[in-house]
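Hey all, sorry for the wall of text incoming. These are the two entities for the joint prediction.
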Amino acid sequence: MASLRCFLRSGRNAVSVILRREFHKTSPAALQVTVRDALNQAMDEELERDERVFLLGEEVAQYDGAYKVSRGLWKKYGDKRIIDTPITEMGFAGIAVGAAMAGLRPICEFMTFNFSMQAIDQVINSAAKTYYMSAGVAAQHSQCFAAWYGHCPGLKVISPWSAEDAKGLLKSAIRDDNPVVVLENELMYGVPFEMSEEAQSKDFTIPIGKAKVERQGSHITLVSHSRMVGHCLDAAAVLAKEGIECEVINLRTIRPMDIDTIEASVMKTNHLITVEGGWPQFGVGAEICARIMEGQAFNYLDAPAIRVTGVDIPMPYAKILEDHSTPQIKDIIFSVKKTLNV
Amino acid sequence: MQNMLTILTSVFRGSLSKNGSKVVVSARTYADFTPQASFDIKKCELHRLEQGPPGEAVLTREDGLRYYRAMQTMRRMELKADQLYKQKIIRGFCHLYDGQEACAVGIEAGVNPTDHLITAYRAHGYTYTRGISVKEILAELTGRKGGVAKGKGGSMHMYAKHFYGGNGIVGAQVPLGAGVALACQYQGNNQICVTLYGDGAANQGQIFESFNMAALWKLPCIFICENNKYGMGTSVERASASTDYYKRGDFIPGLRVDGMDVLCVREATKFAADYCRSGKGPILMELQTYRYHGHSMSDPGVSYRTREEIQEVRSKSDPISMLKDRMISTNMASVEEIKEMDVEIRKEVEEAAQFATSDPEPPLEDLCNHIFYNEPPMEVRGTNPWTKLKSIS
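and here's what came out:
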């Protein structure tokens, strides 16, 4: 089925702060790769590997991509495999789904997530539900689309944070026989990450449906996805100086969610905070808390599970307001200390 | 006798010239029936085309009987569905196709089985012409495990090889069809996609988006508007600023076709298919047709049109009667032969209905299956956290 890449836009184009990260020491063969380049590599490798794969979307070909994610691909693969579309999301999303039904593996790119709303019907009703309804014979503003798409059976939803995440998850999404929504965070494109030698290989994929423990800790579990994972790690670094050790989990996949990894962690640390960029109501954190409550980890909680989320308002325009509408590192630190009662 | 007729038919077909010139072959002394005849068909109105399909069509006895059998089977199948619905054995949505048979049969006669087809929700007829048995169609309508989608799709979601349903969202199937055509072009397999929609859907924005991309990229797509004059309860005059649906493709050439005449539809489809396959890009056909039933089973169909109008179409333009009259008047078939066929068809439909009523429903274990393709088995949350259901793909 179609692999749908959607660019998550959380406001104006300007990248406010590039977060500096402390990198772990690794082998000399590791190199630094930005998220943008990792996505580019993933598509390049998959286009080369499988001739059924092609990319369509606005400005993906001759413009090299609105955010330069598809840079160089048109030059290499030509008009047949890299297709510039008119500004008609519903139309070309439907065309992507139709091409997938007929045996190709399209990557359908929406320039921003808001534009994908025009095509939501094709994604939900045509892509997600068809396999179920055909019983396997052949088979719908700026907001957090993790909750939107994560709500829907028949879709897989992934949310990469690092360059390795981006590359490995996108490759898995392209190879998957089912529709996959890839939530990319535009603010992450220019951020460089270490890429291990293993991740540089053309066969490197990250399994969909498995979370990763980015940092081990014993006092509290922080579960997050996408850009907020970086915030959690920064908060953890600050808290470590005060003797508080946070375990940071990178969800990587929103649906199907890896609740087992979260449960195991909570059973170890006894405290849970979810951190996301989206709004609180019916969000990713809400789902995690509900599941933890319903499962075996509940009995291990020493304090109520807490969600750290975006502010429950439409995304504001002014830069200073925008900066304050999503969780900051200090919000995470504050919530950890409240939960641990320190 | 049967063998003799077959030999005669193949001999004459071999000597037939391609563009349907008037060849009326007189009956041989030991043959009972005329092997083939030529008929004048209504000329198509053209948009951005210098030439259209021919004004005559040759019909062989063999093809004629085949088209008759297909149309009559579809007719009886839909009437049986009506009956089963009224008995509450079929529930939910049910949109019947009776009156429009010539469209589905004519289109299928004009394309190859390896070509692709997609339509909207009035899809039972196309499911049949694309190769699914009456038994599997009726059993899908009654929601049984012997149905073509194992009982999980229902009326609007039946599929077959190179047939993509069956789509419930008005107009959404048109970009899908353009996408299938893109895949045909991409794979260079010389196949085309027939993409159908109704007069009601014809005003949808996504259809114009599809027209634009199909023309831009020269996709091998035949867009077909089945104009049955009413979008649910709204007549075409009340819905469209322009009811010349064959012209609505603007830069895409179009034909307006008599959708009640199976030969007219066939010739137009052949013309359109040749056009697409030659790499010229998409083409649009408007089939003027009529549905006897209301929009769906919950619509009596007489609040927005008169019974007289329905009756007039039935008596003057019924596609099955038209074909039957042609066959009999040229001695290509006998009244008795047709009657026999009718009896056979009734029996087939009756048996299919028996199966559809007696076959068991899909087992509860199937509830969560087929969410994904090619995936290992997984668990699905039930209505409460303690209920975990199994799902296999």
